[in-house]
Amino acid sequence: ALTRYSALYNFATTAMKRIGVVNEFLITLGLVNREHAYKRQFAEQDMPAYIDNTAREVIRLRAMFAEDTPFAVLLIPARFEIRDDDSFYRRLRLGVIDALSSRGVDVIDPVAGFKAAGFGPTHFVHDGHWSPLGHRIAGEAAARWLENLANPG
Q: In the chain, count of helices (H) and strands (E)?
């Protein structure tokens, strides 16, 4: 609750986690995870089902708009693929791209820009969220898609 409603709490805990001894203590207590701890949300064999469910939900969302409304999905590249070239997350990303593209949904995939810039510059060290550079890379990829709509060919 404090994390959700208190900016001062967020600031204090983020600052505290940057102190090595304090951070190790919090990890030992199980209150925080190691930075960028590797995890998978589901098992490898479940990937096709998750990809299909994701594509079906996007199609359902797409159906809520007028047919002539421009629509695309901006993929959020997994930090493990950017940092480690992880094959699980690469297959997941490519599977989602294929599932959406085959259903006629445009996909904006900024992973090449993230990889070119590197993991460190595109992500905050303490929490794995995009840095301003990461946001710029994703924004520029989306802007290119929009430019192609305005100037086809």
A: 9, 2
Residue 95: what residue type?
Answer: G
Tell me the two tokens of residue 51: 């990809």
Judge whether 82 and 113 are in contact, CB under 8 Å.
Answer: no
Task: Note the pTM of the prediction, 2 decimals.
Answer: 0.73
Q: How far apart are CA 96 and CA 99, in angstroms?
A: 5
Q: What is the largest CA-CA distance in the chain?
A: 57
| Distances from the Cα of 103 to the Cα of 36, 66, 144, angstroms | 33, 16, 21
Q: In this model, does residue 17 exceed pLDDT 70?
A: no
Give the tens place of pLDDT for each residue, 4-15.
666 676 666 666
In the chain, what are the helix, strand and coil shares in percent, each to the nearest 5?
Answer: 60, 5, 35
CA distance 88 to 82: 12
